[in-house]
Amino acid sequence: MRAIRAILARNLIKFFRDKMRFFFTLFMSGFLLFTFSFVMKSAVAGVAHPMNYLVSGIIIMTVFQTALNNSMSILEDISTGFMKEILVAPIARWQIAVGQVLSSAVIAVLQGIIVLVVGVFMGLDLDPVHFVMMVCLMLLVGVTFSSLGLFLAALSKESTTFQIMISVVTMPLTFLSGAYIPTTVLPTILRPIVFLNPLTYATSMFRYTALHMESMTTPELVKAGVAFDIHGFVMQPRDGVLIILAIGATFFGLCVNQFRKADFSRVTVFKRGHTGSPDSLPPPLAGLGKSAQVRTVRRMPLPLQ
């Protein structure tokens, strides 16, 4: 547990020292809130409080995207040599994976809470009980998609591949989840994708809690895009908790297993024009340690003119 706490504390300190990263993450949430507010005011029918409806979606999207993108930090740790120092420490690899997942989830929840506070000033009704429930849901979503991000990072082996994979995963999941635009106004042809999207159920259960929809009937929840009628079977917001738990447990196990057997010496990180991989070195230097490579390069004689 000490190893997990140390990795968690280190990643939190690293994140808060990177003020530009922190600022632009919140800036994107504010930009999306400003942009989609016009859509909610003009194109959505059947929603009693459209701005609150949108704010709750922006909060869960902030948690989702932050948790997924923070997994990139593991590739940065590999390029700087920090991961090599951790791997030689007397701790298990699964502890490193758990520390990375928890740190990404905690950072995502903290940013979600900041957006939540902004939402309160915009009219979002909040009481202590629902606040605790929303934080728990944010933590569940954060752990689930941090596990997915770490699994993709350990699987990709290259930073460019990881960024492409994140883009491919993020775009359809985000815009077909009902976070920005309610699923009720999406074309019918997209409904099967919406129902298969795990983020749809994360958004619905968070919105159900944030907007205090406990007293609404099932037809009203379906009309509001919080419950889903799938060929006569109604998927309630509470069912979304079980779905996210199952997906989170699956990817958590996969990411720990992938992290345990991953060969991080083969990871390529593009930085300052150099890949950071041993394969990019000349044949005589490939396979040597970093310090040996430096000593070898320095001792090579200069060519005669």
Output the keywords.
305 residues, mainly alpha
If you had to describe this structure to a student in words, what would you say it looks like?
The longest helix is centred in the middle third of the chain and has 29 residues, at 93-121. This protein has a two-stranded antiparallel sheet with strand order 1-2. Helix 2 (19-43) runs antiparallel to helix 3, helix 3 (50-69) crosses helix 10 and helix 6 (93-121) crosses helix 7 (128-156). Strand 1 (228-230) and strand 2 form a beta hairpin. The protein has helices at residues 2-17, 19-43, 50-69, 73-80, 82-87, 93-121, 128-156, 159-175, 191-196, 198-210, 218-223, 237-261, 290-299; strands spanning 228-230, 233-235. By secondary structure, the chain is an all-alpha fold. The chain folds into two domains: 2-274, no CATH class; 277-305, no CATH class. The chain is globular, with a radius of gyration of 22 Å. It is 69% helix and 2% strand.
How are the SSEs placed, and which strands pair?
Elements: H1 2-17, H2 19-43, H3 50-69, H4 73-80, H5 82-87, H6 93-121, H7 128-156, H8 159-175, H9 191-196, H10 198-210, H11 218-223, E1 228-230, E2 233-235, H12 237-261, H13 290-299
Antiparallel strand pairs: 1-2
Helix pairs in contact: 1-6, 2-3, 3-6, 3-7, 3-10, 6-7, 6-12, 7-8, 7-10, 7-12, 10-12
